[in-house]
Amino acid sequence: MNLSHLKTGDLIVRAKGIFSTHYMVYIENRGGNIIVAENQNGFGVRYVTLAEALKGNAIVRFEKFGGADYERNTVVSKINTILGKSYDLVAFNCEHFARMISHGKPKSKQVETTSHVAILSGLGMMSSKNETVQTLGFFSLALGIIGKIAQP
Q1: How far apart are CA 85 and CA 45, in angstroms?
Q2: Which terminus of the chain has fewer CB atoms gathered within 10 Å of its CB, N or C?
Q3: Angle at CA of residue 56, ends 6 and 96, nearest 5°
Q4: What is the mean pLDDT of residues 63-92?
Q5: 118-132 pLDDT, tens digit each
């Protein structure tokens, strides 16, 4: 799949950092400007051009819309009902938003993976004989659990 084959509701995933990605929802090509919807820290859910959403970063992959073709017609109205909704790193980030629009459920594999790593690391550190490491392990475990609980 490439940009010319995208349809409303397909996901575009770009590089964001070493370990993370940024998700956006393809809306349309409006006179040569590709319009996407994203949930961006500091802005919330909004419509922007693809160039603005990419911020000079490379596209990593595309994901097809998770619903039936006739459901693509509801994508824009679903987004419009949550325009401006605030970004939350753990409970409603860009991936939660994009997967909610594409698949009907807000889900972030990035948060799930980070939570699992924090829990496992915390358990490992809590078995240390060093009190400082044990304390760090407790906080890591707690943050991992909070991340799991906060998932919608």
Answers
A1: 5
A2: C
A3: 55
A4: 93
A5: 566 767 787 888 888
Average pLDDT, integer, range 34-53:
97
What number is the average pLDDT over the span 21-50? 96
CA gap 30, 74 in Å, rounded? 18
Q: Dig out the tokens for 21 from the structure.
A: 């990605």
- The closest of 139, 92, 90, 104 to 118, measured between CA atoms, is 139
How long, in residues, is the chain? Answer: 152
The rounded distance, in Å, linking the Cα atoms of 116 and 84 is 30
Instruction: Let me know if 23 is exposed, middle or buried by CB neighbors in 10 A (0-12, 13-18, 19+).
Output: buried
For the chain, report the end-to-end CA distance as a whole number of angstroms: 30
- Write down the pTM of the prediction: 0.76
Question: What is the rounded distance in angstroms from the CA atom of residue 143 to the CA atom of residue 137?
Answer: 10
- The DSSP line for 17-63 is SSS-EEEEEEEEEETTEEEEEEEETTTEEEEEEHHHHHTTPPEEEEE
Range among 87-91, 96-100, 108-112 with highest mean pLDDT value: 96-100
Q: Are 75 and 66 in contact (CB under 8 A)?
A: no
In which element (H, E) is residue 144 found? helix 131-150
